[in-house]
TrEMBL record:
This is Uncharacterized protein. The keyword Membrane applies. Keywords: Membrane, Transmembrane, Transmembrane helix. The chain crosses the membrane at residues 33-54.
């Protein structure tokens, strides 16, 4: 089979086959860090909200 790699495409017998090889390692690590960061910030905001509701709850009218 005659193969030739030109500009990100593999040409096999006159047919262009698109190949995609993203760099491994850094992308997955950054994604996990962002997920953890979003979860932590969400939990902090939830904790602040619960504290504020508890601290400033309305007194029932007599």
């Amino acid at each position: 089979m005659a193969e030739e790699f030109v500009n990100g495409f593999v040409h096999q017998n006159g047919i262009a086959v698109i190949t995609h090889n993203p760099p491994k390692g850094d992308g997955e690590k950054k994604t996990k860090i962002w997920i953890i960061l979003v979860v932590v910030v969400g939990l902090i905001c939830l904790g602040i909200h619960i504290f504020m509701v508890w601290r400033f709850k309305r007194k029932p009218k007599d």
